[in-house]
Amino acid sequence: MTRLAYSALSSYSRVQIMRLVQDHPGRTITDLCDETGLHANTVREHVQRLIEGGYLVAETERRTTRGRPRVLYSAATGEAAASSPIARRKAEEAARRGDLMRRVLPWTADAELPSDALHQIDALVEDLGDAGFDPIIDEGALTVDLSPCPHASADGSHRDVLCAVHQGLMEGVLTQAGGPLRIAQITTSCDPSTCVVMLRR
Questions:
Q1: Which fold has domain 5-82?
Q2: pTM above 0.70, yes or no
Q3: Which terminus of the chain is more solvent-facing, meaning fewer CB atoms within 10 Å of its CB: N or C?
Q4: Are strands 195-200 and 143-145 parallel, antiparallel or unpaired?
Q5: CA–CA separation, 98 and 121 (whole Å)
Q6: 3-state secondary structure the chain
Q7: CA torsion angle for 124, 53, 149, 121 (degrees, to 10)?
Q8: Euclidean distance between the first and final Cα of the chain, in Å?
Q9: CA distances from 179 to 18, 53, 72, 78, 82 (A)
Q10: In the chain, where are the structural domains located?
């Protein structure tokens, strides 16, 4: 199986672009060039990688005046207007693999969680694995331990942006997968390598 997901975020420039579209949906290539200082061709390449990873969606502007409509880019949040078919397919495939694992290893399933919540966890685990995390899930406590964070050594001025982008992406994965789970909070400590995501129903 080829995993593309978070290789889309292997560049800090793509992380910046994700943060911009998470904060203000409906950005154009020109907007993103102005905000990042990158050349239009570079931004287009980054945007294409993010679309292929299922993290951005493109929509053609509806114009009421003459002129070529612009393409507007937004984060794939899983909501109706910003749902990515790529992200939806990835969530469905993760659910199928999770169901197979629970049939083969029935003791791994938490009887307390409904199947749609388990499918959300399946999608989240696969997505985080693609990001380079090694998540430890406690289905009873509804926690996802991401320690040690592979981004702990990132430039301190970048860490807040990285964390915010990853939180937005995790929220999008949960929404896209469908089900009752959402992120309640992310607990960190003085040690930047420590990160635990608290989920809520």
A1: Arc Repressor Mutant, subunit A (1.10.10)
A2: yes
A3: N
A4: antiparallel
A5: 9
A6: CCCCHHHHHCCHHHHHHHHHHHHCCCECHHHHHHHHCCCHHHHHHHHHHHHHCCCEEEEECCCCCCCCCCEEEEECCCCHHHCCHHHHHHHHHHHHHHHHHHHHCHHHCCCCCCHHHHHHHHHHHHHHHHCCCCCEEECCCCEEECCCCCCCCCCHHHHHHHHHHHHHHHHHHHHHHCCCCEEEEEEECCCCCCEEEEEEC
A7: 0
A8: 31
A9: 24, 22, 28, 12, 17
A10: 5-82, 85-200
Q: Which two tokens stand for residue 37?
A: 């200082």
Which residue carries 């070529």 as its tokens?
68
Task: Walk along the chain (201 residues) and give the pLDDT tens digit of each residue.
Answer: 334 344 677 788 999 999 999 999 999 999 999 999 999 999 999 999 999 999 999 999 887 788 888 999 999 998 877 889 999 999 999 999 999 998 898 877 666 889 999 999 999 999 998 888 899 999 889 999 998 887 777 777 788 888 899 999 999 999 999 999 999 998 876 677 888 999 999
Which two structure tokens, joined as six digits, stand for 48? Answer: 């294409």
User: Is 120 exposed, middle or buried (CB count within 10 Å of its CB: 0-12, 13-18, 19+)?
Assistant: buried
